[in-house]
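Appendix B. Extra example for self-study. Work through it before the problem class; the solution is given directly after the inputs so you can check yourself.
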Amino acid sequence: MTSHGTEGHVYIHEDVVVRATRTAAYLANQGSWWSFSEEYRYDLVGIFGQLRPAGRWPRAVNLWEADWHRIEHVFDEQFGTPATQAPVDERHNDWWRRSAGDRSGGWDRLMVPGPGSRALAELQEGTPRPCVVQQVIALRHGAQQDFLAWVGERVPAAVDGSGWELLMSLRALHGSTATVLYGAPTWDGVGQLAGLLPVPDPDWRPEVTTSLLQAWEGSALLQRGAA
Amino acid sequence: MSEYWCLWELMGDTDGKTRGGMRDAIAAWRQPGWDLAVELATVGSDGWWPHSMALWRITDDAALTRALDAGFDDGLDEHSFHAGRSTLFERISGELVDRHAALLVEHVRAESAGALDRLAGPDAVFAEIFAPWQGLAIWGADDIFALGAREREGMGCGGTPGLADVLGSWAIKTPSRDLV
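Solution. Structure tokens for the complete assembly:
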């Protein structure tokens, strides 16, 4: 699989700290509103909650697909001078207040795709895959590109036929981490997936944090027949 | 795999989310096929505090899948802790010793997959299923005094060739009295 579909794309990965028992409420509210001007709207690839068997909890992940043009304008609306900020919208403020009750903070990363990473439009093909294994890999400084090239080359063949597929592979723009996502229609075979994943080069000094994520049912990557 | 192991680590706070409360929340959580192998309170002078751990033995793939299908609202009292994290393992050597009430729990990261197989001395060694060069080494003794004696004799993975990183803490099986 080539990465032609992601050319020009920039991703925003948000690791959101959720308040106790509010994960489901956070996901639904987060997916119900867009904060900024419609012309600059990012595409929300998915909203996910981290599950008990592996990950951080209560925590959520928001994954957005955008490009520099949209990111610059949205940042300017949010953080620019009063003249460029978006006008006050009480519906937005209501949404924000609800969300503030569901979460307390987060850690965001601007990310760019590696070879074999799929764009949202490609993720919307075939059987929906709401079950996601996320690996955040801290790497030796300078090893990101080699690691992602290796993922794109080795992983698809390694997991072929397992029911699991490589969804996305991303590298943090400002840091030495990479994030790799695998997806499947159900959790069946998740233990077998672990045994199929190839072991990365020790020279990259990979330190992996694995989380099992459940996609919110309204997530764009689960929708089919979209324009 | 025939069985998995899952380590929970719960971070409390000193304003009510105590190790005793976290112990109670762990004990109240029910999931078919998840057997609580050991429940621990980290010793405050060697690690995070207040901090509790639970090591679950997951009997089979079906038990793992059921817990995932249960979703976010699986009955765990999330008000009893500040933040939690969990990791899935397979056991690669040794066994937990039931009489051992004082433990050294070490997170280890090897320079290559397979190095964890060569660790000798811990009661049990576990490897992460999704990153088998990362693991858990658990060393035990009957009580704190015996753990101290074992420590003085030489215990732990520090300095072991082939390891890139080791981070350990003393822990005890949480007593029935409340423990902040």
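Self-check: The mean pLDDT of chain B is 94. If your reasoning did not lead you there, revisit section 3.
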